[in-house]
Amino acid sequence: MKTLVLVSHPEYDNSMTEAFLKQCQSDIENVDWVVLDNIQTDFTFDKEQEQQRLAQYDRILFQFPMYWYSAPALMKKYEDDVFTKNFIAFEQEGVLKGKEMGIITTLGDPIKDYQVGGREGFSISELLKPYQAIAQGGQMKFLKPFVISQFAYMTDAQKQKLLIDYRSYLTNDNFDSFASFQKWYIKQLTVLKASLDDDKQNRMDILIDYLQSNYDQLDELKWEIDLIKKEDDE
Fold first, then answer.
1. Cα separation values, 145 from 2, 11, 104, 125, 128, Å
2. Tens of pLDDT along 20-49?
3. pTM value?
4. Which of 34, 127, 160, 232 shows its CA 20 to 30 Å from the CA of 49?
């Protein structure tokens, strides 16, 4: 699977969050990180070039800070220039069909504020409906948004979890499934093991074996549950 991350941030060079996320994915093959500021000319994008770029990827992710309940102006301009109606639904029908679209957005406020009854009054999913509509028009699969709230206040442990979750969102075929995540995580540890010394490799083997054992038990439990459901249906 090839993933494209399209990044827009008015203060990109000064953003601790963007610097952290860029470092998180820097060693991953088949993930390309594109900063919109670097590919625009006079606040305009090359429509044909960008449409060709999008056609190369399986998962297309828009990454930006939430600005007044939407994306920054440059991200919106990219959408206006590149996601033409003909490109999405008519002239080149099928180019986007079956691809995945996802949103990675950062918040300066607590995530609990973004809900009915919260301070902002709307959920993140509600605010991102226009992207879901674009995905639907292009017959794409719209992924659950990846929301990062108050990065500046995160502890080291929270940042470590963010690193893992972010890499999963970029590369895991089914990141929202616990079983799929565990399988993906085992694969990541196996790759990491090759770069360790012998002592650490042995310790890593113990961890991988433990996780694999739990994964096998989870898979067996799922099989038993499916069997019970089938018997009930009969």
1. 18, 22, 6, 7, 8
2. 999 988 888 899 999 999 999 999 999 999
3. 0.78
4. 127
